[in-house]
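agent> call fold_tool(seq_1)
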Amino acid sequence: MFCFTAVRACRPCSSLWPSVVLPAVIRRQSLNTRSSPATAATQSQSGIKKRVQRRKLPVIAEDAGQQHGFWCVSAFSTAEEFRLEQLSAALSKTNMYEPTCLYSGSDDGAESTPADVVHAVSKFHVTNEPRHLYFFREGSVVGWNVSDLEVSSLINFVAEHEIGSYDEHIVMNERESMYYAYTNDKKSSIQKGNVYLIGDDVTASDLDRYTFSNAMAHSVKLGTWEALLEEYIDSVEVVTQDLQNGLPIRITRKEVMKKTGELFGLRHRINLSSDLLDLPDFYWEREHLETFYRSTCNYFSISTRLKTMNMKINHCLELVELLSHHLSDKHHIRLEWMIIVLIMVEVGFEIIHYAQLFIK
């Protein structure tokens, strides 16, 4: 039976407060940054220069943020998809979280909960601030006021309900975190890298919390796809070097077809299977939430990153098409030479045959 370990509220270090502003989104925050000796040896032997990744912002410790009204919101993506129905049932059995409606009692949205998300609230409060979890069908999880220890427990918990799981190092490296607080303003916003939710309206705060979680889930999912594409680019780097140096290509036609399929699969997931290009239906009749959703997506630069990623995919497709044509030409040339050799053999037999007749 699954059991969550004890949790603590996520808080920044008191030694850094209040001399610095709480940081903007912490991209690719890793709980374990040590690389294995095997990985280091592989990179050293390959001779490939490591590609520069997106700049990481400094990680702040978990100590004093709550004393000043700030808590941590974290997002991570562990798989291509969750089996939400099974996950929701298993979540109820843990006796730690209770799946609940997002906006019960709201006039503008009391009809139904979005079908592609499970919202759960902690049954036990470690602090005055409750813990909220959002499980998205696309394989992402957003946790409000959850500690690193609880994040590790959640990753183990959702593993049984995943379709197309990612490697652990990708999950942890692409994790994103921010700090949030409550404000007396009339609308929620993002200021100086921190999220400020409406504090005097519980229903509106829940809606805004979900809206931000939705955008943050898109960001971490896109970050995971970016990491997968970077790994793909690294895998074909040797081929581009061979082309540049005029060396024989060390790849087969079967491998080229596999690489082509990987690219088209990634492009399909990004542009057709996800909501990254379109506004989710949930916001069509909720203009205030649509505004907050779009501003959050702009903060995470989702549109720009999506365009950049599609450009990279197009360049990779050009490379695999070039390789496919080159290998096809080599195959055709090989067949032509085989035909020529067969014709020469046949001509040789005919010459021998006529020579024998002439001798007789």
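agent> call fold_tool(seq_2)
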Amino acid sequence: MERKHVCILPSAVPIEANSASPTSSRFLRLPHPRTHQPALFLPYSKTGPASESPDALLEVQRISLDADKQRCWFIDEEAASGRSGTHASSDRTLTIAALDGSLAMFTPFDPLFLAISYLSTLPPHFTSYADVWESIAQRPFEASGAAAPEDDAGQFVEDLTRFGHLDLVRERFAAVCDSQDDSDGSVLLRYSASKALTLLRAKVDALAAPEDGIFGPLAATEPGEERKPELDAAATGAQAYTAVTRGLGKEDVGSGHGLSAEIQTESRQKYAIEVVANYLPPPVAKELRQAYEFPALKAYLSLVTPNSVVLNTTYLPGRGSAKLEGNGSADDLGGGSAAKKRKLEQSKGSRGVEALKKVNTKGMKSLAELFGKQAAKTTSAPGSAGSKAASQTDKPSAAKKKKTASK
């Protein structure tokens, strides 16, 4: 029985179900730029058939359910559970088929991240482009947190070689390299950390830009000031991180009335850094974080919200949420599953309980002290009454002793 999938991808991608023609695109299995785990990519041509040289790259991510849940897709009034039929939908959604209720997403991907990841570990020498790819293809990629099995040491060689022959890859590799002419007329390349950092900072600033970034325009900077006018949808584009914007506003760290434009900008930049760091090796991600200082944001957080959940956590594609500070272990790099995250949420108390835990109780008396004193008063009262009764009962006996003595 053939495996079925539901995919969302650009309408320009010439992919067909059960097609082995030379015009269909070929998937490439490459090391992920951050984790070196096997990742799936699809080169394609935005301007012509796939037989021409591809000029764009897509990352393929699969959204699946937990093992204890079941779900399926209904397509054209038919439940796609295990049948071999193929169904086509709109130009924005291609349905090859559906088996387990999962969803495959094809999203645009910049080969620059792969170039930085692969080149940053090579010796800093001028080398020809062909020799660069020979070194990359023969390199043993080890996944984060665990070494790759010996029989899989060459699992990427064929696809890495094919990937290196693409024109769009050669262009992006040259963007992060210094070059010099060789005696035979060929061009030699050497990875430049400064050029890579410049391009990465440009990406961070573009994501955080109020005009066409992912957060939208800045909020009013004065408490009594009206909110700045929203830009047209065509100018701002789709805001993919509206939940993040609301979270920043809820924590009063990056949005809302009364915050200066500098604080809002720096908080957006800090979050955008972690978005970009999802596709960077830990050493390069550390350099990117160190390139920003955030003086206004740090001063504000030290007084208001020193431990911002939104600013310290970001989404890792296909791997749940995880903190990105430091090199970390496999869990720090997003190895947790949805089940682990759900158990963690269940182990926590309600929002009110968690908020009460953060209340400053310095100088306040504990409940044990208050109820302890009350209990002491309650127990001492019966004791005093009992002593009075005991003294009264002792009086007759004393009188008897006096009578006996007089006799």
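agent> summarizing second result for user.
The mean pLDDT is 71. The CA atoms of residues 179 and 189 lie 5 Å apart.
agent> awaiting next instruction.
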